[in-house]
Backbone:
């Protein structure tokens, strides 16, 4: 069983903002595979289904970004899931818009939502898919930047970017980390 946790913020004012890139990937997977209505459990929305013959739980914490670890930690603790079967999907201003980076471990890189997850799980060994939404413009306020909607030029490419993120999740589940990292980090999966 896999858990794919897309980080984001609840509320209409945050829909289609940079900070909700992780939620958008989960939404795409739910829609693509007809997972139906979620269960509201573990401080989030939870869908259960199958991808490429593997059981999967798609999860959107409803705790707001900076408290994402509360929801993810509770779910992983309840499931007693090995962390190599968890994938956290989140926005990253350090990567150019449209770029994906898959990693098995590492620091939060200044991302408060990922820092919350790492703190709750008490390890840096948390697999993640970083969705590039940057770069942060010079002099821009980080909080304002990630909670505002995409620019018109980015909005034109947003749908294909989210599709690429969902494809990357599926590729990982189907092929495993070694193959997925070399493929996704080099170029988008086919």
Residues:
């Amino acid at each position: 069983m896999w858990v794919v946790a897309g980080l984001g913020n609840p509320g209409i004012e945050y829909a289609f903002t940079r900070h909700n890139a992780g939620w958008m990937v989960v939404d795409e997977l739910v829609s693509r595979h007809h997972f139906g209505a979620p269960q509201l459990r573990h401080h989030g929305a939870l869908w259960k289904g199958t991808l490429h013959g593997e059981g999967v739980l798609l999860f959107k914490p409803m705790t707001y970004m900076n408290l994402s670890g509360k929801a993810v930690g509770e779910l992983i603790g309840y499931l007693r899931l090995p962390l190599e079967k968890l994938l956290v999907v989140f926005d990253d201003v350090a990567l150019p818009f449209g770029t994906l980076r898959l990693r098995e471990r590492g620091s939060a890189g200044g991302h408060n939502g990922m820092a919350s997850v790492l703190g709750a799980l008490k390890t840096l060994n948390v697999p993640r898919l970083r969705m590039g939404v940057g770069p942060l413009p010079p002099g821009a306020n980080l909080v304002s930047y990630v909670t505002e909607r995409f620019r018109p030029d980015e909005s034109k490419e947003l749908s294909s970017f989210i599709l690429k993120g969902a494809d990357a999740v599926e590729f990982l589940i189907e092929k495993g980390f070694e193959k997925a990292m070399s493929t996704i980090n080099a170029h988008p999966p086919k």
In short: Strands lie at 2-6, 39-41, 44-51, 54-61, 86-96, 100-103, 128-134. Helices lie at 21-32, 68-79, 112-121, 142-146, 152-175, 177-184. The longest strand covers residues 86-96. The chain has one domain: 2-184.
